[in-house]
Amino acid sequence: MQTNYSPEQGTRGYKEDTRLVPWWSVLLAVCAFVGWQAITFRILVPLDPHPKPTALVLFWSIFIGVFFAFYMLMIGYVNRDAKRRGMSPTFWTIIMLFLLASGIGFIVYFLLRQPLVQSCPKCMERIEPDFNFCPRCHCQLNAMCDECHHSVRAGDIYCAHCGNAVETPSLVRAR
Ligand SMILES: [Zn+2]
Ligand SMILES: [Zn+2]
Fold first, then answer.
1. Across the chain, what does the average pLDDT equal?
2. DSSP state, 19?
3. What global pTM score does this model have?
4. How far, in Å, is the centroid of ligand 1 from the Cα of 61?
């Protein structure tokens, strides 16, 4: 019998697109920036009874525009990141929008987010970090000790749990 574990499987694939921000949030960011410039120069400046120096207006309009644009990108990032962590993207996108004014939406998110969800390299079944085998397709995910069946790290010579000498490259046959 042969093990179907291979070292490349150490980096387990995520089935989601791994780009950090989706296209719609980049679009939102551009719209937010351009929109804010339009509001500033078409509405706020003409309405101001005491016109401010152009340099100052320009500085603030760009500063605030960049903040809105950045926040739109963060909403996209949270939406995507929540998905690959098995959290509700809709819920977290709404939370982010809700906390927009405070600017702390993504701080809350980073404090509360779940660890990354991993999936089986063969069948994409969701797996936990301590799984040695995929529960659906029996793909071996981690090298393990053939004595006590605890997982061992690649390159270990003895099992850290029972002291059994582990085969190099520390693999056992899948059964
Ligand atoms: Zn599988
Ligand atoms: Zn062992």
1. 80
2. -
3. 0.59
4. 52
